[in-house]
Design brief:
The structure holds 2 protein chains of 2 kinds. Chain A is an alpha/beta fold. Chain A has a domain of 233 residues: 3-Layer(aba) Sandwich (Rossmann fold). Chain A is built from 11 helices and 14 strands. Chain B is an alpha/beta fold. In chain B, 36% of the residues lie in helices and 23% in strands. Chain B is built from 12 helices and 12 strands. Chain B has an 8-stranded mixed sheet with strand order 6-7-8-3-9-10-12-11, sandwiched between helices. A 4-stranded antiparallel sheet of chain B has the order 2-1-4-5. In chain B, a hairpin with a 2-residue loop joins strand 4 and strand 5. In chain B, helix 5 crosses helix 6 and helix 6 packs parallel to helix 7. The chains are: A alpha/beta, B alpha/beta. At the A-B interface, helix 7, helix 8, helix 9 and helix 10 of A face helix 7, helix 8, helix 10 and helix 11 of B.
Chain lengths: 334, 359
């Protein structure tokens, strides 16, 4: 379990359910994690594993209904974010917590200039006047590496390329010096050479600004490159959590282990055949009473179908939700 | 690495023995830009601008590049889904570059395509059996029972349960839908299949399933693939030879292992170095080449080499003269001035030979 220290963000037993006509979808089930000052937490998982929904639940970005946060606490700055009023959340979003979305094409407003969109949070949250906000906007664009920033403020989003738009999104998210930046697949829609530019930029910004970052992705390579800690999600649950080097060197959960072998690499040995995780991800139509991965797991035994494993400590700060012990190859004695 | 240098001559030797199934020469696909009140032709988007390559029988040619480099357009042009601007395309010995669409229809059974978006390429109002059986209706005179047998056979081949034959596409997951698309492409026993980003829309764990299926089918049926993808690691896995495209041109074409281990073109080098590695230990050691700026517009490519605006090794000549796409050593083509001086005596001869062969 994550330790309780002076973490910036502390999430306990978060549970989000979507009510649809076809019944409830349990998208997030008892997710707990914490974020330390200045750290970059990588969140990996396939689509539908609940990684985006978890982060959007934290700051009330999900449409309610159909979404409903049924349980849990989110401690941030001495307050529980889930108990805040809509007004208080609005004051918080963009100022204390920045958000970068996946698709830079749709997350900027096409009818306002980029300058206006960067200045909006500055004037609203920081109470800056127009000229101060403009100066800060120019600084921000230069910070994220957009040349000729002064002139570019007057341009509209369609005049920027995909990579440049994502830089603008990052500039907006950084505008008010947030304590936490949540980046939801910020490089998925970009090409690899542009992705490399953005990753360099983020590494650079972390050194300069020292904020905490949550980075959601499905690309293990990106995580390996920039994260300090990694949280692997499957079926709406956290299945493994630990320091990035430790998790990549000694993955404990069968899902993490399988995921690492299915991904080919451009370097090193080339495997003659790809390893496959057979089957499909689970439907999340009810509250989990068994391990969500058991149907695709090569190590599953009867206990996995009877109860949902809790997160067991593998090493200090590294845990996995699995009854199977990867060090002995036997069921865990708990 | 010893195994790599050992296999290189073998590969090119085997290649010269094998039959060329697809020969593309100087293929150009321009899309006109019309502007003004009179919609006058004022320019062209040069999506594919003079590419030449061969695909040998039974091999997989990977085409990689960033979005907008023309790799999908190139694939579609090779199947004549467009009316091409210039160039020749020979598939299985038949020249199809200038054939009418009506004449092409009779040839379609030998060449098929698997599309990127498994959601969009299946008709939502047709059952799986209907979708897989449609090419059979069009091109064969099978009886109903024969057709159903063939449909079941195909469903088995791609790993779909026969009992799903009467379901509609919406009832399937992304990976299963891609399998339906593959079954449809296989229906007429094609020789050549173009896979246009077949795994881009799928999750990581499902991607491996589809790639393994494609490889299995290739072994079993002797298929030839042109595999278009932006995922360099997947292409390294599936392809025998790899072509790298940038702004409508092939900048490098080489057997897989030499291309990944010792890329010649600065763009290939940068592209490979940009791929993040799923291993923190390697990741910490990798020397990244970070390219500055973005890809120029294909309607207004720079003078000289297309890559000269972003190239870290740019020279004066690159801004003036477009480098020739030449064979540096057998089977290894590159279009870059950096490699002109070294092999300037040998290279033009090879280039000439290659032109001579297909004349």
């Amino acid at each position: 379990m994550p330790e309780i220290g002076q973490s910036v963000l502390q999430v306990q037993d978060l549970k989000t359910v979507f009510s649809t006509r076809a019944g409830d979808i349990h998208a997030v089930n008892s997710v707990s994690f914490s974020l330390q000052p200045g750290e970059l937490l990588g969140v990996v998982g396939e689509s539908g594993s609940g990684k985006s929904v978890t982060m959007m639940s934290l700051i009330g970005l999900l449409p309610m209904p159909p979404a409903e946060v049924r349980a849990g606490t989110v401690q941030f700055g001495g307050r529980d974010l889930l108990k805040l009023e809509q007004k208080q959340l609005q004051a918080l979003r963009g100022r204390d917590i920045g958000f970068v979305f996946q698709d830079p094409m749709t997350s900027l407003n096409p009818v306002f200039t980029v300058g206006f969109q960067i200045m909006e949070p500055l004037r609203k949250h920081m109470g800056m006047d127009k000229s101060a906000a403009r100066r800060r906007a120019v600084d921000l664009l230069e910070l994220v590496g957009i040349p000729d920033a002064e002139r570019r403020l007057r341009d509209f989003p369609h005049q920027f390329s995909g990579g440049m738009r994502q830089r603008v999104m990052i500039a907006i998210a950084l505008a008010c010096d947030p304590k936490v930046l949540i980046a939801d697949e910020p490089t998925t829609a970009l090409d690899v050479t542009i992705q490399a530019q953005i990753l360099e930029l983020v590494k650079d910004l972390r050194q300069k600004l020292g904020m905490s970052i949550i980075w959601i992705t499905h690309d293990l390579g990106v995580i390996a490159g920039i994260a300090d800690r990694v949280m692997v999600m499957y079926g709406g649950q956290v299945v493994e959590y630990g320091p990035v080097r430790e998790v990549f060197a000694n993955p404990a959960h069968p899902y993490t282990r399988a995921l690492m072998t299915t991904v080919p690499s451009v370097r090193g040995e080339r495997a003659p055949k790809l390893n496959v995780i057979e089957g499909q991800p689970p439907m999340l139509s009810q509250h989990p009473t068994a391990c969500p991965f058991r149907a695709r797991c090569t190590h599953a035994f009867e206990r996995c179908a009877r109860e949902n494993p809790a997160r067991y400590t593998v090493l200090e700060g590294h845990d996995a939700a699995c009854f199977w012990d990867h060090t002995t190859g036997e069921p865990r004695n708990v | 690495m010893p195994p790599v240098s050992g296999t290189t001559p073998l590969v090119s030797h085997a290649m010269s023995d094998r039959r060329k199934l697809v020969e593309v020469r100087d293929l150009k696909m321009y899309f006109p830009i019309n502007s003004g009140i009179l919609r006058r032709h004022t320019g062209d988007v040069k999506a594919v601008d003079g590419v030449s390559f061969d695909i040998y029988e039974g091999e997989t040619l990977g085409i990689v590049g960033e979005s907008g480099c023309g790799k999908s357009t190139c694939g579609r042009a090779v199947l004549r889904l467009y009316d091409i601007t210039a160039g020749t395309i020979k598939i299985d010995g038949v020249e199809i570059g200038t054939k009418s669409q009506h004449a092409l229809r009779k040839m379609r059974p030998t060449m098929q395509m698997v599309f990127q978006d498994p959601q969009a390429c299946l008709n939502p109002r047709m059952t799986v059996a209907g979708i897989i059986g449609e090419p059979l209706d069009e091109h064969t005179k099978m009886s109903k029972a024969e057709k159903l047998d063939r449909i079941y056979e195909l469903m088995d081949a791609v790993g779909l349960n026969r009992s799903f034959a009467n379901r509609y596409p919406h009832a399937f997951s992304g990976g299963q839908r891609q399998r339906i698309g593959i079954a449809r492409a296989l229906a007429l026993n094609p020789k050549f299949i173009i896979c246009d980003e077949p795994i881009a829309a799928l999750d990581v764990s499902i991607q491996a399933q589809v790639v393994n299926l494609l490889e299995e089918l290739q072994d079993r049926l002797g298929l030839t693939y042109m595999f278009i993808s932006h995922d360099l690691s997947m292409v390294r896995h599936i392809a025998d030879r790899v072509a790298v495209m940038y702004l409508g041109k092939i900048v490098e074409l080489a057997p897989r292992d030499v291309l990944y281990n010792a890329p010649l073109h600065p763009y290939t080098e940068a592209l490979l170095s940009a791929v993040p590695d799923p291993d923190p230990a390697i990741e910490a050691r990798v020397q990244r080449i970070i390219l500055k700026g973005d890809v120029p517009s294909p309607s207004n490519p720079p003078k000289g080499c297309n890559f000269c605006t972003r190239c870290p090794k740019v020279m004066d000549i690159c801004r003036e003269i477009d480098p020739e796409f030449r064979e540096l050593e057998p089977g290894r083509f590159v279009a870059c001035h950096l490699h002109n001086t070294a092999g300037s005596t040998g290279a033009p001869r090879n280039e000439h030979n290659q032109q001579g062969e297909d004349a």
